[in-house]
Design a protein that fits this description.
This protein is α/β, with parallel strands linked by helices. Helices cover about 35% and strands about 30% of the residues. It has a single domain, classed as STAS domain (Transcription Regulator spoIIAA, 2-Layer Sandwich). It is globular. The relative contact order is 0.17. Belongs to the anti-sigma-factor antagonist family.
């Protein structure tokens, strides 16, 4: 298993969740714990930065979608840094129509009120 890490930073209005390595069934619990900790405190918007994700399976997608649903849908959850392969999965599952997708963090920061897919 590759090194998996999660870090967070505040960049108003976002709380950025930086994910590194492989996000799969083995690493999902760590990310879920981190997200749950963030959801315990009010935040304007969550941005999952997946720029450094080498692999993402359905459990990783499920965390993002569960967070999106829990926060009431809308523009409260966004993602950035999707590889072409991961973007195809988002498209195939219809998540691109639901969750704001940005090219990178800078793009997200320049559109703080809603995303461009």
């Amino acid at each position: 298993m590759n090194d998996f890490r999660v870090s967070t930073e505040i960049h108003p209005p976002f709380t950025v969740i930086n994910v590194y390595g492989e996000l799969d069934i083995a690493t999902e619990p760590e990310l879920r714990r981190r997200v749950e900790g963030i959801l315990d405190h009010p935040t304007a918007r969550l941005l999952f930065d997946l720029s450094d994700v080498e692999f993402l399976d359905s459990t990783g997608l499920q965390i993002i979608f569960d967070t999106y649903v829990r926060l009431g849908r809308g523009h409260r959850v966004a993602v950035c840094g999707l590889s072409p392969r991961v973007k195809k999965v988002f498209d195939a599952l219809g998540l691109s129509d639901e969750i704001d997708i940005y090219a990178d963090c800078a793009d997200a920061f320049s559109h703080p009120d809603g995303g461009l897919t």
